[in-house]
Amino acid sequence: MDLKHDFSLRTVESHLSSVESDLAATATHMPSSYLRLLALLVIFVALALPAAIDDTDGADLYEKACAACHGTDGRGRDTSAVGFEIPLPDFTDCAFASREPDADWFAVVHEGGPIRAFDRMMPAFGDALEADHVEAILSHVRSFCTNHAWPPGEFNLPRPVFTEKAFPEDEAVVTMAYDTTSDTTELELLYEKRIGPRGMVEVAVPLHYSKSLPSGGRDSFGLGNVKLGYKHTMYHHLDEGSIVAAGFEFVLPTDEGIEDIDDETIFESYVAYGRLLPSDAFIQVQALAEVGLQGVRDDEVGLRFAAGKTWTRDTFGRAWSPMLEILATRQLGSNADTRLDIIPQVQVSLNKRQHVLLNLGLRFPDDGARDPQLVFYVLWDWFDGGLFDGWGR
Ligand code: HEC
Fold first, then answer.
1. 366 is a domain residue
2. C-alpha triplet 145, 147, 153: angle, nearest 5°
């Protein structure tokens, strides 16, 4: 047993008593029974610590520093047992635990709940525990979820505007594309919901708006082609850094007011691949094929690619992810033609919880026939909290 560790456990102890006095000082409006319970709890944790001086493994450290609130079994102790009202998370619930990447949990343990706009009842351990102790504790916390079918949150990479992710999401996304020369705006409302550990269903409703041209005509507004889809993560391996999904989509001919679009149902199938690279860099690839079910339109194949890297401000702060996305589309049949689009873009987290994100990009087509577009989306990962939760002070 080294002295450093001895020291660090003592600091946990004194840290917890300072949490206690800190809470007592600010809790003048709380009922006194609440305070007594809280004080008892913190003292309980503090008393348990010296016995653990010889400990280096995560399970023991967890028992000393976390179990008083989170429970030895990781399910979270009852609000009546801990003496405060904030419900504790259940770490054995893979549907919740698997989607949180280690980096986010590290931030919460190091800096305390408020760093991700959680309650301050989740104390900060950054001064008391060294990084490798926190990591050891977190790997113990990870062991509470025993179903490895759930892909880990590390694979929930920044979302490119067009390339489908391999991770199944619980998200609502509003995307806007604005044609710089023709003054048309397309809006897409997308809703995605996970089904079990690896499945996801999605529905997308596009709307379009064109301003009348100076030469005449009227403003037009209408529904575009509604899409319904399903995606399934086939494979994921965190050490290797790869995730693979397959999916399909039906594009229904629901559009109104766009004359140059042929009316038929399109079936699209795809494979999506995500790869984690060192230093928070990543690539994402989607290969797809589109077939018109009534044979009106030429079939199409496409390859979409996005590469990027995430920078986090001051270690735990706002996440910036610049990406470069490339779309290659090839029509098959009589009008064989290949199109290329390049979309430089930046995704940024808007709030502390980091579950509301914005992406802003420019889409440059390689031909003169199409206009450059300004594209942006706002994404809300609704499983992580309400749209207005998690903004903090
Ligand atoms: C004094 C009680 C207390 C102690 C001790 C405590 N926690 Fe917490 N923790 C909480 C509460 C309460 C929450 C929920 C906060 C919320 O939902 O706003 C929480 C939330 C968390 C979360 C966030 C989960 C999420 O929703 O993403 C993690 C991770 C966590 N705790 C880990 C730990 C670890 C690891 C330790 C020990 C080093 C620890 N906690 C010690 C009370 C505590």
1. yes
2. 70
> Is residue 116 a part of any domain in this protein?
yes
Q: Identify whether residues 67 and 132 lie together within a single domain.
A: yes
**Residue 377 · residue 358 · CB < 8 Å:** yes
Total-model pTM: 0.85
Looking at ligand 1, which residue's alpha carbon is closest to its atom 37? 66
207 and 181 in a single domain? The answer is: yes
Domain end marker among 142, 167, 199 = 142
Tell me if residue 75 falls in helix, strand or coil.
coil
At 160, list the tokens. Answer: 């490119």
- The residue whose CB lies within 8 Å of the most ligand 1 atoms, and thus the one to mutate among 70, 119, 127, is 70
List, in sequence order, the alpha helices (H) in the chain. Answer: 3-26, 32-48, 58-65, 67-70, 79-82, 94-97, 102-111, 131-142
Q: 113 CA to middle of ligand 1, Å? A: 7
Q: Which domain holds residue 294?
A: 153-384
Question: Each residue of 305-364: pLDDT tens digit?
Answer: 999 999 999 889 999 999 999 999 999 887 778 899 999 999 999 999 999 999 999 999
CA of 250 to the centre of ligand 1 (A): 42
Q: Ligand 1 centroid to 121 CA: how many Å?
A: 7
Question: Of 123, 142, 161, which residue is a domain's last?
Answer: 142
Nearest CA to ligand 1 atom 19: 122
| pLDDT 10s digits, 29-75 | 455 566 556 655 665 555 555 444 445 789 999 999 999 999 999 99
Per-residue pLDDT of 20-34, as tens digits, reads 555 554 444 455 566
Q: Using one digit for the tens of pLDDT, what is the confidence trace for 151-163?
A: 999 999 999 999 9
Nearest CA to ligand 1 atom 13: 122
* Cα 169 to middle of ligand 1, angstroms: 24
